[in-house]
Write a structure and sequence with these properties.
Threonyl-tRNA Synthetase, Chain A, domain 2, 179 residues, single chain, 5 helices, 2 domains, 4-stranded antiparallel β-sheet, elongated, 4 strands, alpha+beta
């Protein structure tokens, strides 16, 4: 992205959400996305959805009725605004996967390093280190979601629109959030 286009986009963004950084806006949208996917999962068990947040709102990939998505997004936002902060954290979030991958990779590297031992002596240590890191990553991933990648402070926001995007092989919807 050119610097000029980036400046224009961020400038336009700051004029619509004065006083909020793009990171804060993204964290808000991420929380609403999680809450929406959680509510859809309760309304339509077995739904297989993937979602991705951005500065306009979020996109939901997967087969879901537009009306169900609209109602779920509105309920999710209302419940977050009413104080249900737990809805901002989702067990299948990419933050959990990234936390697990980074921790287990680092643990395997550290535990398996050292030239004084043979490869066969280092492999069990690397496996043990990676396994322990995976166990620790579960609560750490939830903490990272709650404190770094989402925020339940979504006051003053509203679901502006939910639009089905019909181009491509995968059904997807754009959920736009505004003030």
């Amino acid at each position: 992205m050119s610097l000029n286009l980036r400046s224009e986009l961020l400038g336009a963004w700051h004029s619509t959400r004065p006083g909020q950084s793009p990171a804060t806006v993204l964290r808000q949208h991420h929380a609403i996305e999680h809450a929406t996917v959680t509510i859809i999962g309760r309304r339509a068990p077995g739904s297989q959805l993937i979602a991705r947040s951005d500065l306009q709102g979020f996109i939901v990939y997967g087969d879901v009725e537009t009306a169900i998505l609209q109602a779920s997004a509105e309920e999710a936002l209302a419940r977050l605004q009413a104080g249900e902060a737990a809805l901002a954290v989702h067990p299948n979030c990419g933050t959990n996967l990234a936390t697990a991958g980074i921790l287990s990779g680092l643990a395997a590297f550290v535990a398996g390093s050292g030239r004084s031992r043979s490869l066969w002596d280092r492999v069990p240590s690397a496996i043990l280190g990676a396994t322990l890191a995976l166990i620790v990553s579960v609560p750490l991933g939830r903490w990272a979601q709650a404190n770094i990648t989402t925020t339940d402070r979504v006051y003053g926001l509203r679901i502006a629109s939910v639009t089905k995007v019909a181009d491509g092989p995968v059904v997807r919807h754009r959920v736009t959030i505004s003030v």
